[in-house]
Amino acid sequence: MTTQLLKTKDAALILGLSKAFLERDRWAGAKVPFIKIGDRAVRYRLEDLNAYIESRTRKSTSDTGKR
């Protein structure tokens, strides 16, 4: 199994967010899943980003996503 791991900058582009947002998200509890490699390297899997996008999809502004 080969999984492409994306750097924070690339993940931010895919999500339409800033790199700083993803850095704060990791510090605050990580709603966007990430992988820590070694002491410093942070990477994101494309399939995790796609799953995150799907989990945030709503049908109306009153839809909280809770069932």
Task: Describe the model.
The chain is an alpha+beta fold and 67 residues long. The chain has one domain (5-55). The protein is built from three helices and three strands; from the N terminus they run E-H-H-E-E-H. It has helices spanning 8-15, 19-28, 46-55; strands at 5-6, 35-37, 41-45. It has a three-stranded antiparallel β-sheet with strand order 1-3-2. Helix 1 (8-15) crosses helix 2 (19-28).
Tags for this model:
single chain; 67 residues; alpha+beta; 3-stranded antiparallel beta sheet; globular
Topology:
Layout: E1 5-6, H1 8-15, H2 19-28, E2 35-37, E3 41-45, H3 46-55
Antiparallel strand pairs: 1-3, 2-3
Helix pairs in contact: 1-2
Q: How does the overall form come out from the CA principal axes?
A: globular
Q: Supply the number of helical segments.
A: 3
Radius of gyration: 13 Å
Percent range for β-strand residues: 5-15%
Total separate domains = 1
> N- to C-terminal separation?
34 Å
Largest sheet: 3 strands, antiparallel
What low-confidence regions span 5 or more consecutive residues with pLDDT below 50? none
Q: Order of strands across the biggest sheet?
A: 1-3-2
User: How would you name the oligomeric state of the polypeptide chains in this document?
Assistant: single chain
List the helices and strands in order. EHHEEH
Q: What's the count of strands?
A: 3
Give the helix/strand class. alpha+beta
In short:
By secondary structure, the protein is of the alpha+beta class. The chain has helices at residues 8-15, 19-28, 46-55; strands spanning 5-6, 35-37, 41-45.
